[in-house]
Amino acid sequence: MFYDSSVEYVYQIQQVEDRKKFDIVEPVLAFLQSILTLNNLTVEMTQDFLPYKQELQLSLQNTRNHFESTREEMEELMKRMKQPKSMFIRVQQPTIEGYLYIHEKWALGMTWVRYYCRYMKNNKLLVMLPTEQKPATKLVPVELTLKSCIRRKSDTIDKRFCFDIETQERPLVTLQAMSEFNRKQWMEAMDGKEPIYYSPIQKQTEMELNAVGFKFVRKCINIVEAKGDSSDPSVCLMMMMMN
């Protein structure tokens, strides 16, 4: 009886010791597998969410920049509102304002950028506020002092309704209006001029009569004097050619 119990006890002890080798390792392995699966799922979700995260960061940055610029304007307005009425300076009303496209050089080459422009004719000041904000930049208005304005020839550019202005800050700025009527309004406000069309004759000698030309004119005069003023010009020309 004791022998049987001892053998049974040894058997049970051996079973317990052997089961320890996998009963402990299997749960640990399952736990590690679940962690790896969760990590893989997290990486995939992170990759899918990355574009939305970047777009959100850009929108957040633009919103913050807009808030900063608006706050500065509101602070300036608040300071002016607190001043006495006698210290207020009357803001000059623009002669004309509206949207214009400006031909500018960007990182990828020349492109057309839309601005909201205001022109004051008294001091010839053109204020341009960009409507397309670059990343991590503030919308800062550009002020140009006008010197001259000339309509752009249609055969020199692939865009319609264009005109060029010369300013003190920039030698040449090409602008595009919204329509032909809109361009006419801007040019009238800026005292714009029409472009000069040059004659194809470049040399002064080409515009002067040579010996053959004088001979031809002399024949015409002689025929008119001989036949009188009532003669048919076509008959005079035929007689001159026969001579």
Protein model, in words:
Residues 93-195 form the PH domain. It holds the Pfam family BAR_3. Residues 53-80 form a coiled coil. With 243 residues, this protein is α+β, with helices and mostly antiparallel strands. The chain folds into 2 domains: 1-88; 96-190, PH-domain like. Helix content is 48%, strand content 20%. The chain is built from 5 helices and 6 strands. The protein has helices spanning 2-23, 25-82, 180-189, 211-227, 233-242, and strands at 96-106, 109-120, 125-130, 142-151, 162-167, 173-176. Helix 4 packs across helix 5 (233-242). It is elongated, with a radius of gyration of 44 Å. The termini are far apart. The model has no long low-confidence stretch (mean pLDDT 79).
Write down the secondary-structure element order.
Answer: HHEEEEEEHHH
Structural class: alpha+beta
Mean pLDDT: 79
* Low-pLDDT ranges: none
The tally of strands reads 6
Using the CA coordinates, give the radius of gyration.
44 Å
Question: Which tags fit this structure?
Answer:
2 domains; elongated; 20% strand; single chain; 6-stranded antiparallel barrel; PH-domain like; alpha+beta; 243 residues
Task: Give the topology, please.
Layout: H1 2-23, H2 25-82, E1 96-106, E2 109-120, E3 125-130, E4 142-151, E5 162-167, E6 173-176, H3 180-189, H4 211-227, H5 233-242
Antiparallel strand pairs: 1-2, 1-6, 2-3, 3-4, 4-5, 5-6
Helix pairs in contact: 4-5
Question: Summarize this, please?
Answer:
The protein has 243 residues and is an alpha+beta fold.
